[in-house]
Amino acid sequence: MPTDDPIPDHLLLDEAAARRLLLVEAVDSVDREGRLVGLVERERIDQDALTVTGDPAVGQRLDPKAWLLARADRFLDLLAHRQPRLAALATPPAWQPWVGWLLPLAALVLGGFIDRIDNPRQVNLLSPPLLAFLLWNMVVYLGLLAVALRPRRPSDAPPPAWLPWLQRIGAGRTGALRADVVRAFGVRWWQVAGALEGQRWRRILHTSAAAWAIGVALSIVVGGLVREYRVGWESTLLDLPQVHAFLRVLFAPVVALLPLEPFTQQELARLHFGSGLPVDRLEARRWVGLYLGLLAVVVIAPRALLAAWAAWRQRQLARRVRIALDSSYFSAVLGRVSPARVRLVLVTVGDADARVLRQVLRQAGGEPSAQGLARTVLTTLRGDALVCREATLDALLADWTAGPSGPRWLPRFGRRSEAAQGEEADLLLVSGDRAADLESALPALQTLGRPVLLLPAMGSEAGLERALRANGVRGDVLAQASLATWHGDARLRAAMARLLPPYLAPGVERLVSAWQRHADHRLEQAARLLADELVDAARESQPLALLPLGVRQLVVRGEREAGQEARREAMAALLARLRERQQAVDARLLALHAAVRRGGGLVGDAWPDRFRVHQAVHEPQAGLAGAASGAAMGATVDLLTGGLTLGAASALGALVGGGAALAAAAWKNRAAEAGSSLVMVDEAQWLALVELALVRYLAAAHAGRSDVLGAGGWEGAVHDVVEPHRAALRDLLRLARPGAVAGAGEVRALLAEQLRQRALDLLAQLHGSPRG
Predict the structure, then answer these.
(1) Which of 230, 237, 294, 439 is least enclosed by beta carbons within 10 angstroms?
(2) Parallel, antiparallel, or unpaired for β 10-13 and 427-432?
(3) Going edge to edge, which strands form the sheet with 611-614?
(4) Helix (H, G, I), strand (E, B) or coil at 604
(5) Listed residue (333, 368, 345, 396) closest to 593, CA to CA
(6) Do the bridges between strand 321-324 and strand 341-348 make them parallel or antiparallel, or are there none, so unpaired?
């Protein structure tokens, strides 16, 4: 089997691989009926991908990343032949590269043509369009700074408020299959690659803003080539000192970084449109230089740096798209092919004995052993494993909280002892003799933080269920009495499946199927063992050391007594062989159920004592006796007719009587070799042996689980179950007798099926149908 490598909780893929994987997820999630890609085709795709990447079923290591990508490639190749437009979603949209160039180009053009100087003959130093453009960029920078300084979201924080809304959009269905797949993929892609798409649009928008500023700068420069700007200012609400202070602040970055001087207050007084003083072109050129520098320092350079940063981040994120594998979808998909390791801890509280649970888990495996509970209880061909270890509650608590260092309030995973590493439990099976013991242990169990299945030997299940809720423990309750035989294990398996983590569900399903197959196989083996025994009993015989029955054996007393003694000895010898065979079968039944033999048979010495004695008849003497009897009857007829028959009646009677007696003797002797006598199992006795075989099976099925070990109370139920089928059993007995036309193998198979069905009927009658 492959090694127990855990499935990673996420994958890091490039953008193309991530899109392919998420598109397959969208199709799988929406097209549950297999209208786009059939369910059988999906199973074949899974297996083909396993063949290429490694199949745990043949002892190879599963590579989740390689398998998921190989599966996605095959899935989309098939989808491309049926829905090419859907399959095209696996590649980025064709417009995406063009947008990165067209939007900045459009911004450059719009910045040059839309952002016009109000009046070239009277250019306002306080131009509202230019100031609004600069102000907008400053607001953007402040927003980006606030986002950068915002505390990072903790990993255990609840999801953002918009995420459930986005998930509802993706989960919504319109009935149009293609449209639903497109929407589900779009929502899922933004959930996974939202940061990547955000950086892509940041790059485009920052580049567009820089291009707009370049367009504005070009507009100013080109306008200055063909016009003469008359620079000045005017304001109703602002005085000269206020305008001077505002412009000093506005142009401070330019003055600090470039060899340009701002306007002095005297120069601004002269530049007022109402001053009437002439304005030199040098002031206009200085204004152009200051504004171009301001656009370069405040807009173009920062936006270009931000665009470059966004582009670098985009490339990094495009190489490392994070796909979480702990979602319900990927858990189910990987669970279909990856081995699951289900870890149980069998916990005893008080003076409880986990004998019943040990027996249940021993029988879960395909080859149970009565020597103890193996750590690996059950495995599957896929490599799944059900493992179990035993611990007392005190030992488990001490192991759970002991650590090499650190206070006890640290998270449990940070303070586990080195010996306890790798011994985490998926489920605690807690056994207790009394419900009160289990209830008192719930506070301690609650600290362990694991689901709990309480298995009381006595007490109220309803009371324990209320106690579980009151103590905040996730768990369930199942009485040990419901596990009296393997027939009740379905209840245990259903409870375990409800409590185990969802990501283990596919592996648990395979383990449950293997568990049930082993139980069914064990029942079939037991039925075959008992059927072989019964067929052998029907064919078994013991020769009688007697001469064929004749006149001497009927008349001479010594001969009669010798015959009776021979019959008793033959019956005893036959019974001894049957008992010996029964004991051997009982031992095999107990071994089959991983139970320990406790001396004698399963139900003691409960054999029926009726036998069928076949004693050969001396055929010549039988013929003579028949002839004599027929002649006597014929003589009577001769006398009644007054001799008119001339003795013909006597002759005819002797002939008929002798022939009939001879034929009857030959017919009686047909069951054995000529002249031999036998003792065989009688029909009524054989039917009683059938009932006894079912009682013995019940004893073996209950062994190690229930204190009831014997036939107490079972004979009536067995008789009621067998009674409607006695005619079929008689037919099987006739077929099983020596000399029957049917083959022994065929009879054994038919009888084994009869016993299997009757055993199931009995288990259902005694313990009810297993319920999940």
Answers:
(1) 237
(2) unpaired
(3) 541-544, 677-681, 611-614
(4) coil
(5) 368
(6) unpaired
Residue pair 306/202 in contact (Cβ under 8 Å)? The answer is yes
Task: Report the alpha-carbon distance of residue 215 to residue 303 in Å, rounded.
Answer: 14
**What is the C-alpha to C-alpha distance for residues 236 and 477, in angstroms, rounded to an integer?**
84
What separation in angstroms does the CA of 225 have from each of 212, 294, 323, 572? 20, 20, 56, 133
**What 8-state DSSP symbol labels residue 617?**
B
pLDDT in tens, 527-585: 999 999 999 888 877 665 544 544 444 444 555 555 556 667 767 777 788 888 888 89
Cα–Cα distance between 509 and 342 in angstroms, integer? 11
Which uninterrupted H or E stretch holds 317?
helix 301-319
What are the φ and ψ backbone dihedral angles of 143, each rounded to 5 degrees? -65, -45
Tokens 């080109």 correspond to 222
Tens of pLDDT, residue by residue over 112-146, are 776 555 555 566 777 777 788 888 888 988 988 88
- The DSSP string of 30-91 is H-TT-SSS-HHHHHHHHHHHHHHH--GGGTPPP-HHHHHHHHHHHHHHHHHHH-HHHHGGGS
CA gyration radius for the chain? Answer: 48
Contacts of 736 (CB under 8 A, 6+ apart): 534, 535, 538, 539, 744, 747, 751
- The rounded distance, in Å, linking the Cα atoms of 694 and 537 is 15
Contacts of 443 (CB under 8 A, 6+ apart): 471
Rounded Cα gap, residues 522 and 466, in angstroms: 37
Average pLDDT (232-244) is 80
* pTM metric for this prediction: 0.68
HSE value, Cβ hemisphere, 13 Å, CA-based, for 95 = 3
- The tens digit of pLDDT for each residue in 302-345 reads 999 999 999 999 999 999 999 988 888 888 888 888 888 899 99
* pLDDT above 50 (res 36): yes
Sign of the CA dihedral running 169, 173, 178, 184: positive
Q: Are 486 and 704 in contact (CB under 8 A)?
A: no
Q: How many CB atoms lie within 10 A of CB 224?
A: 19
Strand partners, 379: 385
Nearest partner of 472 among 494, 452, 496, judged by Cα: 452
Instruction: Quote the CA–CA distance of 65 and 52 in Å, as a whole number.
Output: 13
Tell me the pLDDT tens digit for each residue of 416-462: 333 343 457 889 999 888 888 888 888 888 888 889 999 988 877 88
Buried b (16+ CB within 10 A) or exposed e, 667-694: ebbebbeeebbbbbbebebbbbbbbbbb
State how beta strands 231-232 and 123-124 pair: parallel
* 143: Cα separation from own chain's centroid: 48
Q: What is the pLDDT of residues 85-102, one digit of tens each?
A: 999 999 888 888 888 889
Provide the pairing of β-strand 611-614 with 677-681. antiparallel
| DSSP secondary structure letter of residue 175 | S
pLDDT reported for residue 677 = 60
Question: Model confidence over 187-199: pLDDT tens digits?
Answer: 889 888 888 989 9
Q: For the chain, how many helices (H) and strands (E)?
A: 28, 13
Tokens linked to 244? 């001077």
State how far the Cα of 578 lies from the Cα of 555, in Å rounded to an integer. Answer: 34
More confident site: 739 or 408: 739
pLDDT of residue 269: 79
Residues 6+ positions from 299 with CB-CB distance below 8 Å: 133, 134, 137, 209, 210, 212, 213
* Cα–Cα distance measured from residue 380 to residue 515, given in angstroms and rounded to the nearest whole number: 9
Burial of 380 (C-beta count, 10 Å sphere; 0-12/13-18/19+): buried
Closest CA to 204 of 92, 315, 100, 311: 100
